[in-house]
């Protein structure tokens, strides 16, 4: 490799590398200014009084307030509830999609993706129309005599959960569907020919082989739902107050930038914790698999 | 996959019935809005007793809604105009550098897409407040550009990876400068991907609501911000009209993108 040793060429390669590095610079600068700097600013602001002096008072105030802890609990409840329904609804749907001919599956996927491409405000409005006291669903329920009184379906936890599941289901479905589509259909055929029932095949072949997809989908659901704002703000009707809503209220009603920042940091910490938990879980599962293979 | 079980009718019916319900659940809120938008009534009756275009007239006749629409369209266009060139340059850079450097750059550029919108929004609000820029179009624009860059990169990275770099080497050795090489060789060949990226960046901005809610104000309020405020106060059927138009536009844009990618 005498060519690489040529100092002139090596210098040329170095300057070319610098040039390519510089091409990323504008994008990096704007992400730095409009995403990273703001997060750092939240950290700084959390240690400032309204007068601009350093303090830990904001932390004492926020962490000693019962409202903070109930917001934290609501956040986790909403995320876990959304996750549970996504798994319950999304896994069979993914299995059905993976079982049909590709042409039909693609068409059905387009319908699944439609909500993903619809504005969250449009969807929230749709749910309001459906779930209100005099909304479509209550009209159908009371009209058919299933319930005597309209059910309280919106402006509460139920309504918020419905809206969030609706938002997250397509995002959960994508990795699960991808994982199931990649399963070798011959495995299912082999199991069937050996006398396995459908239940056994689902339990011992399909679900274990799509566990990776379900895992990724769950992580996506958690990471997204922790910071959800629009859905609880509209469908919660002021009665559902996760961290995101508390942040907004602290900022716009009480003008308390310091406390709002502390709540923001809580949100970040929660996200980091959940992310770390998922990564550790994945590593443990991977190790068990390796262990099982060696045993 | 389940064709090995053609006789298990109960399981199939359960699976399919269940999936049909899940599909209905996914489609219903988007579809229910369409007939309501053509209702003649102030009430949200379903099905509407009489049809009219009054909510569309209401939307197009309202100075506030029109200002919101104008702001959103301007913002979407500017976002695409800034995010696509920045994203393209970054994708070329990542493709050429490779290895750990490229992964690090990608990590930074994609990070905003997993940070909760509410955190970006209040952080941006603080930073802009310190500069006296809250409520300006510029403030919302930088927020939207940061959210559009990951989308642009996801579309353009594979396209750049498919590009045959020898063509640029050849052009360079024949004396073309970098601007000429990028503008004259890379851009024309990535045309279709660049169009997709542009539309996606535009949609990302059009759809974004949380940053707008916190950072935009007054004349610079975007359509999603106005919709959010209106949804919080009362249920105005005008929103059904906006929603229907909106969904129609998005479906058309997504169709264009998918069809062009296929061809």
Number of domains of chain B: 1
Question: How big a fraction of the residues of chain A is strand?
Answer: under 5%
Q: Into which percent range does the helicity of residues of chain B fall?
A: over 70%
Shape of chain B from CA axes? globular
Q: Write down how many β-strands of chain B occur, each being a DSSP E stretch of 2 or more residues.
A: 0
Q: Could you tell me the radius of gyration of chain A in angstroms?
A: 25 Å
CATH structural fold name of chain B: MetI-like fold
Which CATH class of chain A applies here? Answer: Mainly Alpha
CATH architecture field of chain A = Orthogonal Bundle
Oligomer: heterodimer
Give the total of domains of chain A: 1
Distance N to C terminus of chain A: 47 Å
- The CATH architecture term of chain B is Orthogonal Bundle
Helices of chain B, by number, come to 12
Quick structural gist:
By secondary structure, chain A is mainly α. Chain A has 14 helices and no strands.
Written description of the protein model:
- The complex is a heterodimer of chains A (295) and B (263).
- Chain A is mainly alpha-helical and 295 residues long.
- Chain A has helices spanning 2-5, 7-45, 57-63, 66-99, 102-117, 120-131, 136-143, 157-181, 185-193, 198-209, 211-226, 230-235, 243-252, 257-294.
- Chain A has a single domain, classed as Orthogonal Bundle (MetI-like fold), CATH 1.10.3720.10.
- In chain A, 80% of the residues lie in helices and 0% in strands.
- Chain A is globular.
- By secondary structure, chain B is an all-alpha fold.
- Chain B has one domain: MetI-like fold.
- Chain B contains 12 helices and no strands.
- Chain B has helices at 9-37, 54-61, 63-97, 99-110, 117-131, 137-162, 166-173, 178-189, 191-207, 210-215, 223-233, 238-262.
- In chain B, helix 1 (9-37) crosses helix 12 (238-262), helix 6 (137-162) runs antiparallel to helix 9 and helix 9 (191-207) runs antiparallel to helix 12 (238-262).
- The longest helix of chain B is centred in the N-terminal third of the chain and has 35 residues, at 63-97.
- Classes of the chains: A mainly alpha (295), B mainly alpha (263).
- Chains A and B meet through helix 2, helix 4, helix 5, helix 6 and helix 8 of A and helix 1, helix 3, helix 4, helix 5 and helix 6 of B.
